[in-house]
């Protein structure tokens, strides 16, 4: 197990950091509750327990099943599984306060899970959101009308506040021609007819197949935060992606692909 991950866990325990404990029942279902680290112990460390789960905790201890624990350090979430050694109904936090707690064995593995900076929402076939992309010169003013010959036929697949996923299509029988060095002008047309003009770069693939007539690719937006206009544009993007995310969640709950 990487020593850095161990130290991050020790740091979280030392500052009584927050964590989430996942308790498996006999059916394999997980019961989650928010908690906090209390103190390191020779055999492991103490975590504040939930009185409502005391019976389940005793069952987990008796069965030898491992509990899951997750905690954050910066933007990264770390997870591990370890046995609960015992439950203490009156663990002294200080001279006047005691809480219910459980002693968790030191884990053998701690796994980092990198959180995505931007949620990516899929664009359905019937969506009114669309995108057009042009290659433009480095010195060109972003809001000037670009030359039609520089447009890259594009089909929008997904969107986040940081970029879009697209499929570049052949033009006049020629495969898409674009490189990560190209400066891109991106025009997003929203459902209400509002247009957003953004600058971007090809994120992947780094090199397009020579004979491909369709290429799936990712385009990253230039960071938006320099002035009021860009902050307003970022707010609009955040709203659009949030609405699409909620619609996607509703379709998922209803079993609609």
Topology-level CATH name of the largest domain: Thrombin, subunit H
Question: Which stretches of 5+ consecutive residues score pLDDT under 50?
Answer: none
- Determine the strand fraction and express it as a percent band: 35-45%
The arrangement of helices and strands along the chain is HEEEHEEEEEEEEEEEEH
Describe the largest sheet: 8 strands, antiparallel
Summed over residues and divided by their number, the pLDDT gives a mean of 86
How helix-rich are the residues, as a percent range? Answer: 10-25%
Question: Which tags fit this structure?
Answer:
alpha+beta; single chain; Thrombin, subunit H; 6-stranded antiparallel β-barrel; about 260 residues
What does this structure look like?
By secondary structure, this protein is an alpha+beta fold. It folds into two domains: 3-114, Pnp Oxidase, Chain A (Roll), CATH 2.30.110.10; 121-253, Thrombin, subunit H (Beta Barrel), CATH 2.40.10. Helices cover 19% and strands 43% of the residues. It has helices at residues 3-14, 54-63, 228-253; strands spanning 18-24, 30-40, 44-48, 66-73, 76-92, 98-105, 111-114, 121-122, 130-136, 151-152, 154-160, 163-169, 183-189, 195-204, 214-221. The strands form two sheets. It has an eight-stranded antiparallel β-sheet with strand order 8-11-12-15-14-13-9-10. The protein has a six-stranded antiparallel beta barrel with strand order 1-2-3-6-5-4. The protein is elongated, with a radius of gyration of 26 Å. The protein starts with a helix and ends with a helix. The mean pLDDT is 86.
């Amino acid at each position: 197990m990487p020593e850095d991950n161990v130290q991050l866990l020790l740091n979280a325990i030392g500052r009584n950091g927050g964590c989430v404990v996942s308790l498996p029942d006999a059916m394999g279902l997980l019961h989650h509750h928010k908690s906090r680290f209390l103190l390191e112990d020779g055999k492991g460390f103490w975590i504040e327990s939930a009185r409502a789960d005391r019976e389940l905790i005793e069952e987990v201890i008796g069965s030898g099943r491992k509990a899951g624990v997750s905690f954050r350090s910066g933007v990264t979430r770390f997870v591990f599984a370890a046995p609960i050694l015992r439950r203490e109904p009156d663990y002294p936090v200080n001279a006047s306060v005691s809480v219910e707690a459980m002693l968790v064995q030191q884990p053998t593995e701690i796994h980092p899970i990198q959180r995505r900076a931007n949620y990516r929402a899929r664009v359905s076939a019937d969506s009114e959101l669309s995108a057009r992309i042009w290659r433009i010169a480095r010195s060109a003013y972003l809001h000037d009308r670009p030359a039609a010959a520089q447009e890259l036929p594009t089909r929008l697949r997904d969107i986040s506040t940081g970029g879009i996923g697209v499929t570049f299509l052949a033009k006049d029988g020629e495969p898409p021609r674009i490189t990560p060095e190209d400066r891109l002008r991106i025009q997003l047309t929203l459902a209400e007819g509002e247009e957003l003009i953004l600058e971007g770069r090809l994120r992947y693939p780094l090199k397009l197949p020579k004979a491909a007539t369709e290429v799936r690719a990712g385009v990253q937006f230039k960071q938006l935060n320099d002035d009021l206009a860009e902050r307003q544009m970022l707010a609009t993007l955040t709203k659009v992606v949030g609405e699409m995310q909620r619609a996607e969640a509703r379709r998922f709950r209803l079993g609609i692909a």
